[in-house]
LRRNT domain-containing protein (Muntiacus reevesi), 293 residues
Amino acid sequence: MSLASGPGPGWLLFSFGMVLVSGSKCPNNCQCQDQEVICTGIQLTEYPSDIPLNTRRLYLNDNKIRFLPAMNLGLLSDLVYLDCQKNRIQEVMDYTFVGVFRLIYLDLSFNNLTFISPYSFSMLSNLLQLNISNNPHLLSLNKYTFANTSSLRYLDLRNTGLQTLDEAAFQNLITLQTLYLSGNPWKCNCFFLNFTIYLIVSHLNYPGEDLIACGDEDDHVFSAFSGCVFLKIISYTSFTNVLLKCPPLSPSGNILDRFLTKMPGFKGHWGRRNWVMTASKNVSSWLSKWVCL
């Protein structure tokens, strides 16, 4: 499946012509000056009307807005900065930002997000900074969510309900520099392994790494569950004491093979009970242990 197979934005573009917006006024109780509209903390319950069409910076933060209308927002073709933090937005639907393709900053933090459509950000190829932190009911992200945000440099996913992430969601983020992940209830199982490997090889900056931990208490301790293998990844820079519970396998098992393949410079050997992997100095100071119970 690709983004091209998803529903197109054509119906939205057609609908724009049906919307009557004067674009020459300033919304009630807002401040408008020099292509900047500030509607901060004025108890808005819906997206304001009469936003000037030449607006470049729009502040809707600290209100009670529940929904961002694509048709109205899409008329702001010059918009580069949109702050919607601290509202009550629950969903971001397909092509919500279809008309604001120049957007470089988007803040949706501190909302009530439960769902972000795979095509929500599909038109934001110029986006540099995206903040969706502090949405505790956001439990998952589709692997296509960031497919077209190839310019993204800063992504904040702190304090959500995310338990796991698919590494495929990040494969097009070739310019990503900073990724915030702390404060999430990560499910440190084998499905999470590929994303963990991605973090190792990508050399991203992810501040607050000492606060990144598994969300399930059972993931922090060695269980006596018979026949299981545990992978403990230890790093001096990130993901300290992350514990991955994996199916029974040997040093030639599929998961270990994939791990070694994706980690050039790593060498492994059997200890008395452990499969110990160490990295060459030019890769990273990582130590990984396969602990067989």
